[in-house]
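Table S2 (text version). Query chain:
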Amino acid sequence: MAIGTSAPELFTSLIGTTVTKNNIGLDTILGSAAFNLTFLIGVTALVTGKAAQLSKWPVTRDSLCYVVSVIAVYIVLSDHRVAWYESLILIILYGMYIVVMYFNSKLSTLVEKLSEDQTPDKLDEEEHTTLAAHKVDGYKSLDKVNGATPSLENNRSIQDTEKSNSTDKGPNKEDDDLLFDEIDSPLELPEKWWQRILWVLCLPIGLVLFITIPDCRKQKWRRFFIVTFITSIVWLSLLSYAMVWTFSVIGYTLHISDDVLSFAILGPATSIPDLVGSIVVARDGYWDMAVSNSIGSNVFELLLCLGGTFFISAFLPPFAKNLTVIMKENSVMIISVQLLLALAITMVAIIFSGWKLTRKVGFALVFCYVSFLTFEILYKIGILGPEGLPICELRY
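Corresponding structure-token output:
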């Protein structure tokens, strides 16, 4: 989930380094990391409006991996030069993160055995906790009878039970056809006036995507899911290129640094899929997945997006001669400290709330992001920093 929702950051980073040759890709990823860690988790808690009980292991696991990622990125970028082997180290670190996720269930069991928090009374209480499954608006939602949020292990058991029941009953083709028939067409005019305005604005791109991307949700296009995937990736790369190019021109025209635009606007904008995904799964009761998605996305962006981008760029002009990517001056040290500080604030807020994600925690995290963003902008434009950062160069 974290990889899929972070695809825009990957293409933005690649285009910013290889095409525009500025810090747009780097600052977009750093801005997205700050957005995911504070604002995303905070808004998810505010929108859902429920006090959710979080599992300790998933949050702690991803937080530790995130700390390692930030430290590794700072070490690599501290001299503003990224050799090919340094970028390869970042990629290897992400591979190690995948290994940890592969053995997650075994590690979770080991941590629970070593944990001193699991007293016999707590274990007995957890064993007698029952779950009730119900469906809301077509989505599967799991809630504990006593009001707490289900753990990932209980979620898996219920999913397995539902799968076995659905297998026994066999596929219901009539329900599938009914679901596919309810898919909205881009040519259908909405009822509300403000929806019609958005419909008119989005109609050109909506028609193009509707024509060029097979809708594999429909029965007749199901076997073309590979074509849907490939065309979606192609369109994502093209739109990312247009977005980076547009913001470069806007920055040059308005004399605004690329670092400011990418950190304050591009970073949050490319994290919209992460925000939507976290809200959806949180409403379904998968709060651990929502939080892990936000932190896991940061690990993917910092290690694989940056590492993969620098590794490819090192073998392309003008960096191919020395196999080293030269970065412009940036505030990577300050951003790294702030990212670690944001994680510390997030963890402290969650721990002091009893590992619950409440509305108070949500407001605190949103305020943290606003303060963090304000400070970074003031630093980049020279009010708090030594001098304003340069704008994009114009080349004919």
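Notes on Table S2: Residues 225-254 form the longest helix (30 residues). Residues 119-181 have pLDDT under 50 and may be disordered.
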